[in-house]
Amino acid sequence: MIDATGIEKVIPHRGDMRLIDEIREYNETSGVGIKYVREDEFWCSGHFPGNPIMPGVLQIEALAQTACFIALTHIGATDGKTLGYFTTMEKIKFSHMVKPGDTLELHVELLMTKMRLYKFHGIAMVGGKKVAEATFTAILDTVDK
Prior knowledge:
Blueprint: H1 4-8, E1 22-26, E2 30-36, H2 56-75, E3 82-94, E4 103-114, E5 117-126, E6 129-142
Antiparallel strand pairs: 1-2, 2-4, 3-6, 4-5, 5-6
């Protein structure tokens, strides 16, 4: 298992925008990330007051961060100088609400890679039930820090 400190050695996301707390397993083409949905998340007070529901875009972002960890680890780019940027998102489906107290399991699989493009399919689950699903592509780019 990789904890938050280990995750931050690979992906650039920090603070409230790091949406994965653990990597439970990973290899060159797939992995499982974990997000513990807390009551003190930045979105809880406004989405929706008295009935917080994790925004779908954040669920997809959590899948993408898990995918980013897999891709950057695979190519050995763990120095913080390579970032992943969405280029497409498709086949996005939400089937159940995610609420504080839930443990979001983020299952991602690499579908293809071409040069700097990586295409993944992700399924987010809570308690063994699918809550969200998406196929997305990202481009990896090196930045000067």
